[in-house]
Amino acid sequence: NAGVTQTPKFQVLKTGQSMTLQCAQDMNHNSMYWYRQDPGMGLRLIYYSASEGTTDKGEVPNGYNVSRLNKREFSLRLESAAPSQTSVYFCASSFLAGDDTGELFFGEGSRLTVL
Amino acid sequence: QKEVEQNSGPLSVPEGAIASLNCTYSDRGSQSFFWYRQYSGKSPELIMFIYSNGDKEDGRFTAQLNKASQYVSLLIRDSQPSDSATYLCAVNGRGSGGGADGLTFGKGTHLIIQP
Question: Where is B13: in which H helix or E strand?
């Protein structure tokens, strides 16, 4: 079972470059999330998609866009990368229906450095 | 805005002793509470979740919830060096079906188990 798969695992960008982080889950989950994790700041929600066809802003959405391509895939795009976006990015998913616990299942993370 | 507070540590505990990790939350409407463990360079993994006031035990781990005091704790009995990690407290706002806007995380407590 792959679970939640993120690509790429590592990326170095120059300021102003764009890139897309890809995420796919094979657990038939309804909801998907993008978090960023910075030292001393914990995990902060960037965007989420409660179900296929919907997306909403989280706590720190500025500088990012997302696409829920289908039920399995949720991508995060940086249109013009800035050094402040240097971080570790985690994609997560949740079933979020019925008696589901609300547990989030995380991908392995994508470490992004913006120079 | 929901807030989840944890002492960042490090919390140093001798091997074999009980480690006690604490968390407070601001949103009285929070219904579900989670403890994740995160090893350095890895993604968070769920240890336990709890919905009801009182204690919930799973092996060496016990989660405790006091909604009146807005307080959640995690006890680790017979601590092992492999328990050394960062422990993240997380909450969501809806009932057992989970919150569409994901989980709000504390910044984590760094636990060190001394052999």
Answer: strand B11-14
